[in-house]
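[Q] Does anyone have a clean structure-token version of this?
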Amino acid sequence: MVGTIYEKMDATSKGEKTRARVLEAATQLINQKGFRSTSVNDIIHVTGVKKGNLYFHFSSKEELGLAILEQAHKDFMAFLSNSFKGERPLERVSSYLDAVLEKQRKTKFVGG
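[A] Here you go.
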């Protein structure tokens, strides 16, 4: 998954890259199946990490879910700051709505 939002977190060490990869995969899986329907084993299967490695980075599924929400918040705030363009308020709102619509079209309305 080259160029994903999680790889842009300046992941430099092997552990940071693994953590970013787990976040990316778990986010996609949870967007598809929901948090309650996604098991730790599902995440392990998709990422290929060992259970101990997963729990090294996240002490629980709930902690992983919280990390996903925190990253989604950061990504959304960055999206907002890049979406409001224009000098007049109406131009800024219009550019934001255009950016939201374009993002939803690209993601086929999956993933928030």
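[Q] Thanks! Anything notable?
[A] The two ends are 19 Å apart (CA to CA).
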